[in-house]
């Protein structure tokens, strides 16, 4: 099997930085407008006390920042792309911890307002991140072959695999 070499940013989807910049702007604009201005789909707030929502939001943000920080420590120890498959640290539990951390930030803000419109938008954002993760995983499969396929069997894409 021929292994294609990819350097740095070529291991991610072209123009990924645009998605990372635009998606939060769109989400937080819509979230803010629904949660604070128009209040179209936040009726669930009547059933969940504000304090509970704040505690959930802060807890999920703490978890998300942990995922982002741990993945950053493992992935960016050196400023060069790794020439071997990294499976230690947080990557031994979930294959896309940085994306998971980013997605959890969206979830945290959904908990704060319980905006149904934001939940719908989150589903679309999740699909974009899943598409980006699939793209990157295909590159890793080309680079590392069977080693990556074995890793995929053992480690969950978004959630830890309890059966590994």
Write a structural description:
It contains five helices and no strands. The chain is elongated, with a radius of gyration of 18 Å. 63% of the residues lie in helices and 0% in strands. The chain has 164 residues and is mainly α. The chain has one domain (17-77, 95-154). α1 packs antiparallel against α4, α2 packs antiparallel against α3 and α3 (97-113) packs antiparallel against α4 (116-144). 15% of the residues are buried.
When the domains are counted, the total is 1
Q: SSE string, helix = H, strand = E? A: HHHHH
Which runs of at least 5 residues are low in confidence (pLDDT < 50)? 1-6
Task: Kindly state the percentage of residues in helix.
Answer: 55-70%
Structural class: mainly alpha
Report the total helices. Answer: 5
User: How large, in whole angstroms, is the Cα Rg?
Assistant: 18 Å
- Looking at the structure, what is the overall shape? elongated
Number of strands: 0
Largest sheet: none
- N- to C-terminal distance: 27 Å
Quote the average pLDDT. Answer: 92
Proportion in β-strands? under 5%
């Amino acid at each position: 099997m021929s292994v294609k070499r990819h350097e740095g940013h070529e291991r991610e989807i072209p123009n990924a930085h645009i998605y990372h910049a635009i998606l939060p702007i769109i989400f937080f604009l819509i979230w803010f407008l629904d949660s604070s201005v128009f209040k179209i789909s936040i009726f669930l707030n009547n059933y969940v006390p504000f304090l509970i929502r704040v505690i959930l939001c802060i807890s999920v943000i703490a978890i998300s920042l942990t995922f982002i920080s741990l993945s950053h420590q493992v992935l960016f120890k050196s400023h060069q792309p790794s020439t071997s498959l990294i499976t230690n640290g947080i990557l031994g539990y979930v294959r896309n911890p940085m994306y998971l951390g980013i997605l959890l930030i969206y979830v945290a803000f959904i908990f704060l307002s319980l905006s149904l419109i934001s939940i719908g938008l989150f589903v679309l954002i999740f699909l974009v991140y899943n598409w980006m993760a699939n793209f990157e995983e295909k590159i890793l499969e080309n680079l590392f072959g069977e080693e990556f396929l074995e890793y995929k069997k053992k480690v969950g894409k978004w959630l830890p695999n309890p059966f590994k």
